[in-house]
Design brief:
It is a single chain. This protein is an alpha/beta fold. The protein contains 13 helices and 8 strands. Strand 5, helix 11 and strand 6 (346-350) form a beta-alpha-beta unit. Helix 3 crosses helix 6 and helix 3 packs across helix 13. The longest helix is centred in the first third of the chain and has 27 residues, at 2-28. The radius of gyration is 47 Å and the shape is elongated. The chain starts with a helix and ends with a helix. The relative contact order is 0.14.
């Protein structure tokens, strides 16, 4: 009996030990992480209830109609835009003596002709070969065949009579002969002030690329500098931005510009420009015409039409032909054709600062029988100058 009790006790002890081991091992195992807490979700705003579920409206302060500011029915409120800034009006450089002030610039490129002639004339023996060189120098400078022959003949006679030739005597001799050739007695004033009426009417003509529109703008500066009021007619309706370019020139000196639609009738624009010039009491109307190819008959005929339409107001006082001084004899061909369509009264030579061929002044005057009245000596706004024979010849032969 004792043995049975002992066996039961041992069995109970063993079972208890085994139970403790199992519980201990379970405690040592890592428990899984707790599940993440569910995010707080904000419920969407409840829809307004209707019927029996509707809430009782809350009392809110309200204004009566007497307390509400109403428009008084007066003029509508206009938001004022800041005024556009007017372009600053420039004061052009006075034209009196402008060519004299530009003589240094002119002489840098022009005195090749004068220096070459003085060098040849200073030789101890002036034989036939020397005189041929003198002729070649003049022809290279675009003086022209007939004027060259006349000048050489007069030089030969005077050198023969003079005998001893000091440098100062040669310079004086050459200056006198060149002045005779250029023509010191020609009337070079731009006709802008007719005695019996206002305004004076000036047409500016020429082929494309000669600087015609730019010359028109610069001429406006010349006239404004001399105290005249100017209206510009942008009758070059075929070249893109020509009217804008001319208007910009006008705004810089306070000149009014009349323009029409692009590719419009140039004669109509010219007519309107003269009409507005009359109404405004302007002194001068400058009409910039479209560039013409002298080889195109139809275009040249249209130029004649512009002049005829303008003359329904009043006669045209000046027709200025703009020529590029670098084109040489081709410029003379252009001048001849233009003179057959409209009566050219004066020449404007541009780009005279970039060439040593100052003889074109003589050649074009001899070709057309009209004077060079203005010359362009650079790209600056005030580089258009009235032509002064003495200043020009002095620049040719140097100081």
């Amino acid at each position: 009996m004792d043995i049975v009790i002992l066996a039961v006790v041992i069995a109970v002890v063993v079972l208890g030990a085994l139970g403790g081991l199992i519980v201990g091992s379970r405690r040592k195992k890592q428990l899984p992480p707790p599940p993440p807490a569910a995010p707080d979700i904000t419920a969407p705003p409840a829809e307004p209830h209707v019927g029996d579920e509707a809430e009782t409206p809350r009392e809110e302060p309200r204004r009566t109609i007497e307390e509400v500011d109403l428009p008084d029915g007066s003029a509508p409120v206009v938001v004022e835009e800041p005024p556009a800034e007017a372009p600053e009006i420039e004061i052009p450089e006075p034209t009196a003596g402008r060519l004299v002030r530009l003589r240094t610039r002119l002489s840098r490129s022009q005195n090749t002709l004068g220096k070459g002639l003085l060098t040849l004339l200073s030789r101890e023996h002036l034989d036939e070969d020397t005189w041929e060189e003198i002729e070649d120098t003049l022809l290279t400078a675009d003086v022209g065949v007939l004027p060259t022959q006349e000048l050489v003949e007069r030089l030969r006679e005077r050198v023969k009579v003079l005998g001893t030739r000091t440098p100062e005597e040669l310079r004086t001799l050459l200056r006198e002969e060149l002045l005779t050739l250029v023509g010191r007695d020609m009337d070079r004033a731009v006709k802008t002030e007719p005695e019996d009426r206002k305004p004076g009417i000036v047409m500016v003509v020429g082929v494309n690329g000669t600087g015609k529109t730019t010359t028109t703008g610069k001429l406006a500066r010349v006239l404004v500098a001399d105290g005249q009021s100017v209206v510009l007619g942008a009758a070059d309706t075929f070249r893109a931005a020509a009217a804008d370019q001319l208007q910009t020139w006008g705004e810089r000196v306070g000149a009014h510009t009349v323009r029409g639609p692009e590719a419009g009738d140039p004669a109509s624009v010219a007519f309107d420009a003269v009409k507005e010039g009359k109404e405004m009491g302007a002194n001068v109307v400058l009409i910039d015409t479209a560039g013409r190819l002298h080889t195109k008959t139809g275009l040249m005929d249209e130029l004649g039409k512009v002049k005829r339409v303008v003359e329904k107001h009043a006669p045209v006082d000046e027709v200025l032909l703009v020529l590029d001084a670098t084109t040489g004899q081709n410029g003379l061909v252009q001048a001849r054709v233009f003179s057959e369509v409209v009566d050219i009264t004066g020449i404007v030579l541009t780009k005279l600062d970039g060439t040593a061929k100052g003889g074109i002044v003589v050649a074009v005057q001899r070709e057309l029988g009209v004077p060079v009245k203005l010359i362009g000596l650079g790209e600056g706004a005030d580089d258009l100058a009235p032509f002064e024979p003495e200043a020009f010849v002095d620049a040719l032969i140097g100081e």
